Amino acid sequence: MLTLELLRTRRNLLFWTLHAAGWAAYAVTQYFGALLYEKPASYGQVILIAAVAGFVLSVPMRSVYRRLWGRSPRVVIIGVLVTCYATALALRSVINLAYKEIVEPDWQFKTLFEVFGGALSSTYLLLCWTAFYFSFKNYEAQQMQQADALKATALAQEAQLKMLRYQLNPHFLFNTLNAISTLILDNQNRTANNAVTRLSEFLRYTLDQDPVKKVTLRQEIEALDLYLGTERLRFGERLRLEYAIDGPALDALVPSLLLQPLLENALKYAVSSREQGGSVRIEGRIRGAMLEVSVIDDGPGLRDGAPTNERRGVGLRNTRERLAVLYGEHHRFAVLNSHPGLRVDMALPLELAPAISTQSEARPAVSEVARA
Predict the structure, then answer these.
(1) Considering just the CA atoms, what is the radius of gyration of the chain in Å?
(2) How far apart are CA 235 and CA 166, in angstroms?
């Protein structure tokens, strides 16, 4: 099948190629017909002249049909019939003159009907040319319409993804600024200043990242470290974080800032709300054609009797919606009680980064434990 890019960039080349091929096929069929009916050898010259004349005379039909395109069916039908017959009449006149000059010099028209009636056979030929032209034109229009529809869908999807991503920023800022305010009220000004610095670094990172862009899981972990720079100032030893990510999984692509809202949710319920704090574990592995990522905390989990759509805050709901927009039915997202705590499991179609940097190879991959 012809691609839309080929139709757009090589339209003229395609037209002239198909136009020439069509009239060449006409010449070949006429030649074999002449052999079948035992026409004189000089009749081959008439066929050649007819093919060349048809090639030249039918070119203006393209311009006429461009003007007819998009008009009402009645106008198109009348325009096509008039154009085909007028062109056929000119073509038949050339053929008759060539036949008289080359094959039978004594041949004369008996009636005008022979001229106008003889043009009907050429009219049928040009109607076939017309049918092919409009079929090709209609195919091109359908391809362009389909491409426009896909582009509109992609733009709508991108807008939705950006909206979902940007919803996280006010939610995160509220929690972080509230924590900084608490540090200031407790006269921990140095810690509050450090928290503001860490916050600015993380916000700079979020501004640099396209909400639609995918990053490697390794980069996602590095972004979490920026985020945790602020949270560790708040929680200190109460926050215990563990990474258990297989080496190959670090080079798999995930939506940018996918884990931050999940980690923020875990910190809120498993660490912040408990005096002894809590632990959070992030796991990652490749299984078949899927990347599996889990965020596990030892907090209270879901309350008993909670409806299945209750998932502890905007972070989980937002992440679920982002994955649904990006992957449709080709992903899994589950929130389960892990006794104790909560477990968020995700499975995404495996996409690997095209290259692996040497710097990333030096970073620990499996069971990295980070505490503050």
Answers:
(1) 37
(2) 26
Residue 240 has φ and ψ, to the nearest 5°, of -125, 120
Helix (H) or strand (E) holding 30: helix 11-36
Question: Around Cβ 292, how many Cβ atoms within 10 Å?
Answer: 19
Residue 338 has which token pair?
Answer: 């892990």
What are the structure tokens assigned to 352, written together? Answer: 């690997």
State the maximum Cα–Cα separation within the chain, in Å, rounded to a whole number.
Answer: 118
With both helix axes pointing from N to C terminus, report the angle between 73-102 and 59-68 in degrees, rounded to the nearest 10. Answer: 170
3-state DSSP call for residue 344? strand
Summarised one tens digit per residue, pLDDT across range 284-326 is: 999 999 999 999 998 888 766 555 444 456 678 878 888 888 8
Token pair in block for residue 87: 């062109």
Domains and CATH numbers, the chain: 4-151 (no CATH), 188-371 (3.30.565.10)
The position carrying tokens 């990295």 is 368
DSSP strand pairing (253-255 vs 214-216): antiparallel
* Percent of the chain topping pLDDT 70: 77
Query: Helix crossing, 189-208 with 112-185: angle to 10°?
Result: 170
Which pTM does this prediction carry?
A: 0.52
Burial of 87 (0-12, 13-18, 19+ CB in 10 A): buried
Count of other CB atoms within 10 angstroms of residue 275: 5
